[in-house]
Amino acid sequence: MFKRINLIFCLLLLFLACEKKGNDIVNTFRQAEQLEADIIKDIDKISRCRDNYEKVLKFAPESEMAPVACYKLGKLNQIFGHYDEAIEFYQKLLTYYPEAPVCASGLFDMAQTCQLHLDRTDDAISTYQQFIALYPGHEMILPALLQQGQLYCQELEWELALENFQQIVTRFPENKICDDLYFRMADIFHFELDKYPQAMQMYQNLKDNYPASPWIKNAESRLAELRRSENEK
Amino acid sequence: MKNRSFMQIIRILAISCLLMISCQETDFTGDDFAWSPDGKKLAVVTLETNELLVVDIHNDRVENTRQVDNYIKILSPCWSFDSQYLLYSKSTKEYLNVYVYSTTVDTSTLIVHLPAGKDDKIEQFRPCWSPKENLILFTLSNASGAQQVYLTRPDGQEKKLLVKVNSEQLVPAWSPDGQWIVYSVFVHPGHQNNGLWKMKSNGAGPAQIYQANKISSFRWSPDGKQLVLAQLNDNNTNQLIMIDASSNHKQVIYSGEANITNVAWSPEGKNLCYVLQTPDEKKNAWMVEAATLKKFQLTFANVKEFYGWGQAGQVFFTIAKPEQLVDLTEAEKEKVDMFYFIRGMVKDNKLISIDNTKITRLADNVHSFRFCRQNGCAAFFQNFGVEFLTSLYCPIIILANGEPVYLARTQKEHLVAASQFYRQQKYHQALAHLNQYWNGNISKDFQSMFDVQSIISSAKITGDSSQYRALLQGQEDGALLTSILIMRQLKHKRTAEWLFDQYKILMIHYFESTRNSKENYNDILTFLIFTYARSRYEEFQSGIKDIDRLLTINQSDSLFKPYLLYAQALLAFEDSQYELGLNKVKLLLDKIPQDFDDLDDIKDMVYLQLPVAESGLEAKFIPVLQQLAQYQVDEDDIIEIHSILADLYEKTREPGKAMAAYQAVLNQDRDNNEIWDRVFRMEVAR
């Protein structure tokens, strides 16, 4: 009797579990339908947003709003993955409105799009170069130097990469990536350029200036290794 | 102009003018302005009057404008190092004459005369002053085609032949210290003498310092220690090369297929700028650090003209104005063209400066820009747009304090200057130029200058209609209306009102004297609309109010009031006052006589507003279009207007009326698939 009750109870539990799972799936499906309806409403908003920006460019190309509208169209295209169209709008912004404050952002975003989405490394490097030269005081100068430096590393242009990283640590010594950069520069001197005195100097700079850095142990190990090699010579 | 409606004329003019501006090749030599080395004088070659002027520049003013010469083609003014003498040329097919103007005795001396038959042209003449003394270097070719470099004094005496070279081309230049002369030689491709040569300033010791196939330009650094040259190699690549003047050591700055132009050293010699023009005609400016040869691109393939260095690391150049950034329909293109044309806005260029800290838009529609580092002033021509298919290039000086000075020499230039000052709300300066236009003092003598009845009567009595013609010209140019607007802004209310009354009398007289001519109305409409809209006045509301007053004039001509209402509607639409504009159109349609045959104008004017009018106004357009639809007889016109109505009814969610409009279209064109598509879409969506 007890066994029978137990069995019925287990079957009931099993049934309820299946029912719950079924309800979960149904809920998930219903949620997806609701989200889809919201997306369709948003698509309409996005489309109207785009049309309005385009209207500004059509009928008021010399207004103050026009360069911002051009930038926003580039950004919208970028967000939705239309990268070639995004680049087109950024280029129009730079060609026709170079004096607009929003150009700096356009130039940076164009560099990033080339780098991260279109795999156009040479274009990205030259675009970052232009950004760095034209807007040396811009708030995005550090990311620009950093990204360009990374691209130089990718292209094995170590000296150019070092220049960029050195600029960052000189101009922004308080920034939280400086210790990382010192270690990176030291490693470049050490392993890519075989410039051991400079490498040792960099590891030492890291130790002296950023004693709390998580790279300290690695730096000490590298320094010890380099000193051993020196002694052996 | 006959048998064309106003809107047709405006359209033709708008498109033609915009095409003219895009294709126009006015003869800018690039040397139309020359600042004296001490920054105290400016030489100007005017385009409208073909004069060579010299003006004196002080900190906050321009003085003593004097004419040095007056000729069809005056070229290349350039100043001596001590700013005492001005060299310039006059050129025709028959001769080339070179003069030196002395500022101390205020006379010009002919120093070179080349009569007809000679091969020499001004481009080969290339005169240039020594940087350290009053000596002029120039090149002439002899009968056998050899190039001869001469030195002469400002009085043309003691011409000394320095060197003779068998060369197709020879371009000389002084070193910055005046001790040396460097010249480029091109005999023929591959000749060993091709390249750069150097000699002492007295012609002694010519020696080749650099061999190159074809040198297109070269520049000394300000300290004289380096030379930069642009050359075309045998393999058709262009190179920009820096040469140490003492060691002849060379470094390549650029090598590639782009043409190299506008090479210019910064004033302190630390940087170099140059322009590269790629085979697809796009130009970019580049900056190079002279010490390291590190370079970067300054611009974005958008340079039109490059104007070199200013102060504090600044460079100047022009770029094109934005055009067709996104696709436009035909109707949208027309609306945009109309916007520009009615306002007299020119799509020419923007003048940009770049320095270490920022990129700045300085001015629009600029040509032949010249900045003076000594006094911080700038001079240029500004394109002031179209007056029936011509541009007006007025010379302007911008003083160091930012104030503009218009070197106006003609009535039209004075009017343009007045309108520019009006825009800047500098009404006294505007009035000063208007006084120049009218050759009188409006504030003091307005009654004698503008009493229309007296002027007309006097013309009849004396037979001298010059004052009447001047008044009509002023009405046509818009100067009379401009005078009224400025008097209002200066709070000279009585004068402004009196002038407006004269304006009304003149209009009545004008209509009566040439009654029943449609051309009158087109002319009246033209200057009514343009004066209020042009030169960026954008006095649309003033125009609408003034026309309300003109509408009180008793005129038996049945076309008079409809045309005035037409002008009001157009001004309202241009001011984005769509409801007001549509109300004026309704009034206009109520007043038009039976024989009014410019309904197309009215219809086209309303159509043009549809793409631009903000959404929500569709319902306002419908009654006007319904009224216009009653007048359409042509099949295409019926189809067009009912298609538009159907679209508007759909937007205002009146499917029944939309269907009736679609049916009206299909009654004319049964097999119109586009309309059937729209019908089906509408029905499915219901």
Set down the secondary structure blueprint.
The complex is a heterodimer of chains A (233) and B (686).
Chain A: H1 2-59, H2 65-79, H3 83-96, H4 103-116, H5 121-134, H6 141-154, H7 158-171, H8 178-192, H9 196-209, H10 216-232
Chain B: H1 6-23, E1 33-35, E2 41-45, E3 51-58, E4 61-70, E5 74-79, E6 85-91, E7 96-102, E8 107-114, H2 122-125, E9 128-129, E10 136-141, E11 147-152, E12 160-165, E13 169-174, E14 180-186, E15 195-200, E16 207-211, E17 214-220, E18 226-232, E19 238-244, E20 250-256, E21 259-265, E22 271-277, E23 283-289, E24 295-297, E25 303-309, E26 315-320, H3 330-343, E27 349-354, E28 359-364, E29 366-372, E30 377-386, E31 391-398, E32 404-406, H4 411-423, H5 427-438, H6 442-450, H7 452-462, H8 466-477, H9 479-489, H10 493-513, H11 518-533, H12 540-550, H13 560-574, H14 578-591, H15 599-609, H16 618-629, H17 635-651, H18 655-668, H19 673-685
Antiparallel strand pairs in B: 1-2, 2-3, 3-4, 5-6, 6-7, 7-8, 9-10, 10-11, 11-12, 13-14, 14-15, 15-16, 17-18, 18-19, 19-20, 21-22, 22-23, 23-24, 25-26, 26-27, 27-28, 29-30, 30-31, 31-32
Helix pairs in contact in B: 1-3, 4-5, 5-9, 7-8, 9-10, 11-13, 12-13, 13-14, 14-16, 16-17, 17-18, 18-19
